[in-house]
Design goal:
By secondary structure, the chain is an alpha+beta fold. Helices cover 21% and strands 21% of the residues. The protein has one domain.
Length: 194
């Protein structure tokens, strides 16, 4: 019987090197079919998703990796690593991009082709202090490069820091919202909720 809710019961974590060619058709290496997503009301659909064996829509990691490499190329950065979450938490992946003065992470929701730019977060041995809200960063050039790619929706720093309005994000479980009580869009979308 498939797990209930919006999270699956996978407990492994995979951190891949940026030059790794190991990438399955979906997050777990299984072939899938194209799916669609529903983000904020009226957000549209995307072909950058696939369904897992339980019918959960998952972002195609190959397309996320390609988007990170293209955005890094357009902004003078270098992709150094991908941190892919396979467990129940977190609900996002990261593509790390190094620039001469700093490193940033492109955070991508696992179930929705939605991106934001944040400080890199280490998933490996997360303690309670490591599982709080991401620290989002203002990176207008990187956001512009990502927005030029049609398969993903990109939230700006202003978008992600706005007060959270549950009516605009109908796909988030109301029970999670009640329990976790997010105050910003970023806290509600990119999280470690189980």
């Amino acid at each position: 019987m498939p797990p209930s809710g919006r999270h699956t019961a996978y407990a492994s974590l995979h951190v891949a090197r940026a030059d790794s060619s190991r990438c399955g058709d979906d997050l777990y290496g299984r072939a899938g079919r194209a799916g669609s997503w529903v983000g904020p009301v009226g957000a549209g659909t995307s072909n950058s998703c696939r369904s897992d064996r339980y019918g959960h829509v998952m972002v195609d990691v190959r397309r996320f990796r390609a988007a990170c490499h293209e955005a890094a190329r357009r902004t003078g950065g270098t992709v150094t690593e991908f941190r892919l979450a396979h467990g129940v938490t977190p609900n996002f992946h990261q593509g790390l991009i190094a620039y001469h003065d700093r490193a940033v992470a492109i955070a991508c929701l696992r179930e929705t082709p939605l991106l934001a730019v944040a400080e890199p977060r280490d998933f490996t041995f997360a303690t309670s202090r490591d599982t709080g809200p991401l620290t989002f960063v203002d990176a207008p050039a990187l956001v512009a490069a990502l927005r030029a790619l049609p398969e993903f929706r990109v939230l700006t720093y202003t978008d992600i820091c706005r007060p959270f309005d549950a009516a605009a994000w109908l796909t988030i479980d109301p029970d999670d919202l009640k329990y976790w009580n997010p105050t910003t869009v970023g806290e509600a979308l990119f999280n470690y909720w189980d």
